[in-house]
């Protein structure tokens, strides 16, 4: 009886929490689909707002995707070998580097953006390009990739795996590709999901860094909330969800596929 | 030596010259000279921290020696050659198998690195898996096979690269006792069949005896004794070796007129060992005791006995507090308090001068 009582309580609490998280999102989606939010369902539903959002802001959707994927590519290229190098080296130096790399997370995004503008403001074409935003996102997301990979490295006996491969004649770069990478895959997948979601949703850094030509989705969203009617802003949220959910599922699928490929 | 000489010999001879290793100013391996003939199996035996694993890792190329020209394979200096270029097969205590690959992929990895073509590689992998009895497990993931099967996969993987020497670092330590006993026989046979030069690290003396052509007993960074198992067991060079290998009884006392005497009420001993008068330690193995009742017999009071089947281990006191362990026929009962009389052959008594 006692266990049933706790089970019921668990279900109720979980349901309440889920509702707490989901209701605002669902309301947003609902608002984006109503003809007039103030009048509610009686006014009927429409896709007009979504169409308007697409007409006004489709470039921000694509830009956000491009920025997120470029950010992911760079954090993978820098973060994964970097994490392994740090763990291999160990000691005080490695810890200091890890702290420095983590700093951009602690520093307010606005301050980081300001520092970036102070440093590269003079480099006109770079400052104006989407790449500038990408660099900002890499600075911000890199520690999440590295920490995720380091966490997995800490749980596997990478040194023995590396020595085992070395004893079979494998050169250092091949040991990294053949033995280390496949065994830290869970950390890479988790890190990738974090980096993608952070990059796509990133606002305060991007808001400071963007130019009218390099607006990302969240910056456009702020723009819409500030200057358009509620239904358009809500429809924008709907577009955001439609974009981000398949993207995350896609990453999971790709991770699953590469696992099967290397296993065969 | 007997078996390996007839088998086809593969592998290199190993020699070390004043080989030392220092970690952060702490010398963990004292100058070591070692000669291992091609095809011979040398076991490094010792307690943890004696330097046996360091010596193995130096031979493997996983550690760099303190100086140049300290390690040679077939006369070539390999001291500065990293492990990936040294062509040594290594079996690790934790196996170091790749969890992202199957059993056969693990075995084939070294051949793949060497660019061996697919069909030859597959055939060789199948041959090796059959050799270690794993042909039915080729496509299993490493995580889906047992400890013993992992151990054999690791061995097959190390042999697949046709190494100059095979190095094994406590390969059975992670297994349970029954499996360990079976595999040590299997590994010993397999290594002899291959006729490969092997260095085998263990802290288990039974394993060392079963596998080694020779055993090097190590103590605090140096080799305390190196010889064939029989000599190590019956003629230990010093106290440390005597103590570490098997059970050893010791009786310390003064020899005068060629006899070491101990007396106490109705127990005691008079061991005729000859030689000048001296303070000494006399040692003998439990199995050297023979039941006897003559005037020369040692008399001891039984404290306890443990029945083993073919024999029994009797613990008895020759004088109060001076306990001896004796392996005696199991057909006779020895009750606590009873006096047991026994003799030790002169040849079975080992003497170390009191240090």
TrEMBL record, chain A:
Listed Pfam families: BPD_transp_1 (PF00528)
GO terms under biological process: transmembrane transport
Keywords assigned: Cell inner membrane, Cell membrane, Membrane, Transmembrane, Transmembrane helix, Transport
Localization (cell): Cell inner membrane; Cell membrane
Membrane association type: Multi-pass membrane protein
Alphabetical list of InterPro entries matching this protein: MetI-like, MetI-like_sf
Annotated transmembrane regions: 64-87, 99-123, 129-153, 235-255
Main localization, broad class: membrane
Domain ABC transmembrane type-1 per the UniProt entry, residue ranges: 61-249
GO cellular component: a single term: plasma membrane
Entry similarity comment: Belongs to the binding-protein-dependent transport system permease family.
Protein name, entry field: Putative spermidine/putrescine transport system permease protein
Natural source organism: Enterovirga rhinocerotis
From TrEMBL, chain B:
Domain ABC transporter: 14-245
GO aspect biological process, one term: quaternary ammonium group transport
UniProt keyword list: ATP-binding, Nucleotide-binding, Transport
SUPFAM superfamilies in the cross-refs: MOP-like, P-loop containing nucleoside triphosphate hydrolases
GO CC list: ATP-binding cassette (ABC) transporter complex
PROSITE patterns linked: ABC_TRANSPORTER_2 (PS50893)
SMART domains, alphabetized: AAA
GO MF term list: ATP binding; ATP hydrolysis activity; transmembrane transporter activity
Record protein name field: Putative spermidine/putrescine transport system ATP-binding protein
Organism: Enterovirga rhinocerotis
Lineage: Bacteria, Pseudomonadati, Pseudomonadota, Alphaproteobacteria, Hyphomicrobiales
């Amino acid at each position: 009886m006692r266990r049933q009582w706790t089970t019921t309580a668990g279900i109720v609490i979980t349901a309440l929490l889920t509702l707490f998280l989901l209701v605002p999102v669902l309301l947003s989606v609902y608002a984006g689909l109503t003809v007039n939010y103030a009048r509610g369902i009686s006014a009927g539903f429409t896709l007009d707002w979504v169409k308007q959002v697409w007409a006004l802001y489709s470039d921000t959707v694509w830009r956000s995707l491009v920025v997120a994927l470029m950010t992911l590519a760079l954090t993978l290229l820098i973060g994964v070998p970097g994490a392994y190098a740090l763990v291999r080296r160990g000691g005080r130096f490695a810890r200091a580097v890890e702290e420095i790399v983590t700093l951009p997370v602690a520093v307010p995004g606005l301050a980081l953006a300001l520092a970036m503008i102070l440093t590269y403001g003079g480099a006109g074409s770079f400052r104006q390009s989407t790449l500038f935003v990408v660099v900002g996102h890499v600075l911000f997301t890199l520690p999440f990739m590295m920490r995720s990979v380091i966490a997995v490295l800490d749980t596997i006996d990478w040194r023995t795996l590396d020595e085992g491969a070395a004893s079979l004649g494998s050169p250092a770069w091949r040991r990294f590709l053949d033995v280390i990478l496949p065994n830290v895959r869970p950390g890479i997948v988790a890190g990738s999901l974090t980096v993608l979601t952070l990059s796509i949703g990133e606002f305060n850094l991007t808001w400071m860094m963007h130019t009218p030509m390099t607006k990302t989705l969240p910056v456009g969203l702020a723009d819409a909330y500030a200057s358009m009617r509620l239904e358009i802003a809500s429809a924008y949220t709907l577009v955001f969800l439609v974009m981000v959910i398949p993207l995350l599922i896609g990453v999971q699928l790709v991770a699953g596929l590469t696992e099967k490929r290397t296993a065969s | 030596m007997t078996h390996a000489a007839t088998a086809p010999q593969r592998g290199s001879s190993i020699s070390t010259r004043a080989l030392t290793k220092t970690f952060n100013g702490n010398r963990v391996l004292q100058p070591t000279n070692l000669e291992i003939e091609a095809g011979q199996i040398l076991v490094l035996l010792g307690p943890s921290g004696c330097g046996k694993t360091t010596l193995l890792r130096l031979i493997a190329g996983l550690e760099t020696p303190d100086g140049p020209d300290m390690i040679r394979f077939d006369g070539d200096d390999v001291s500065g050659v990293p492990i990936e270029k040294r062509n040594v097969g290594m079996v690790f205590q934790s196996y170091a198998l790749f969890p992202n690959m199957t059993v056969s992929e693990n075995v084939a990895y070294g051949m793949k690195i060497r660019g061996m073509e697919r069909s030859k590689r597959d055939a060789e992998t199948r041959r090796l898996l059959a050799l270690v009895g794993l042909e039915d497990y080729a496509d299993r993931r490493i995580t889906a096979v047992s400890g013993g099967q992992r151990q054999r996969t690791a061995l097959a993987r190390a042999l697949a690269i046709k190494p100059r020497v095979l190095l094994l670092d406590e390969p059975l330590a992670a297994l349970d006792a029954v499996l360990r006993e079976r595999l040590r026989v299997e590994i010993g046979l397999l290594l002899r069949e291959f006729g490969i030069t092997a260095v085998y690290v263990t802290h288990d003396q039974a394993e060392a005896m079963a596998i080694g052509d020779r055993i090097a007993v190590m103590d605090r960074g140096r080799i305390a004794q190196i010889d064939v198992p029989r000599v190590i067991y019956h003629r230990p060079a010093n106290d440390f070796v005597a103590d570490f290998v098997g059970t050893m009884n010791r009786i310390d006392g003064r020899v005068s007129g060629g006899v070491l005497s101990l007396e106490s009420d109705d127990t005691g001993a008079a061991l005729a060992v000859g030689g000048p008068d001296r303070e000494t330690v006399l040692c003998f193995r439990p199995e050297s005791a023979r039941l006897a009742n003559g005037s020369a017999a040692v008399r001891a009071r039984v404290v306890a006995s443990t029945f083993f089947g073919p024999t029994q281990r009797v613990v008895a006191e020759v004088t109060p507090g001076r306990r001896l362990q004796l392996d005696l026929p199991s057909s006779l009962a020895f009750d606590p308090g009873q006096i047991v009389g026994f003799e030790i052959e002169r040849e079975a008594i080992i003497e170390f001068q009191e240090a």
